[in-house]
Amino acid sequence: MTGRHIAFIGLGSMGSGMALRLLDSGFRVTVYNRTRERALPVAEAGAELADSAARAAAAAEVLLLSVADEDAVEELLFHRIALRPGVLVVNTSTVSPKYARDAGARVEKAGARWIDACVIGNPAQAREGSMRVLASGAPEDVEAADPVLRALGSTVVPLGPVGQAPAMKLAFNLLLGAQVASLADAVRYGERAGLDRDLLLAAIGASGFSSKVMSFRADLMRSGRFQPAAFKAGLMHKDLRLVVEEARDLGLELTVTETAAGYFERAVAEGKGDFDAAVVGEAPA
Known about the structure:
- By secondary structure, the chain is of the alpha/beta class.
- Helices cover 53% and strands 14% of the residues.
- It has helices spanning 13-24, 36-44, 53-57, 70-80, 97-109, 123-128, 139-144, 146-152, 164-192, 197-205, 212-223, 233-249, 255-269, and strands spanning 5-9, 28-32, 48-49, 62-65, 88-91, 113-120, 131-136, 153-158.
- The radius of gyration is 20 Å and the shape is globular.
- The relative contact order is 0.11.
């Protein structure tokens, strides 16, 4: 990497942790977030606070994005920021492989560079730098970003050309969504069959049928505390929708994934998109 000045755009629960981790690792970080208040704790920790995405990116050698969806990436990268030749765009936002390839081509046309850096982990792991980072892009660009990626994650997994890391990330999130939806079904069935909800969730969480993800969500369902979210239901719905759309383009039918997506779509429609994905197993009122 040619320098250590990073423009970090998007300071949600994951982005804030990552930005703080980069500061701890000795990087100069300029931050921008649409809601300014969310950027203030990072600025107080030593980051430079910009009043626009364009100003954040103006002098940085690395532009790191951690935003909600493809629309946000599109608006920021191609409508608000003037990409400079040589700038390395590191996209940690979850987008479809198709979009990543298209955006990467347009970034390259502008003389800049793009890599996918999909992260697997939670906000605490983002702050600790203990996530798994899935990286894809031109080998020389992934190598250039290596100091940044290794500050963010305890494991960096190179996966090949642009688009491969988003495909891997969506495969992971497919499993997450299906597990949470199936856990919700198991609880609904058990309750209707006369089982005590709390005992059932405790038994599932401690069983060999469980996983770290399922045990964590079982605890959330038991407590009924779905905020702050480790992973929002709205983002889960978005990612499952991306998987389903990508699968259709590939000639695949993913029936389980489509069904799971419906659970999170309903949660969003009920105004629970900012709650943890476990909200789909919420106890009936």
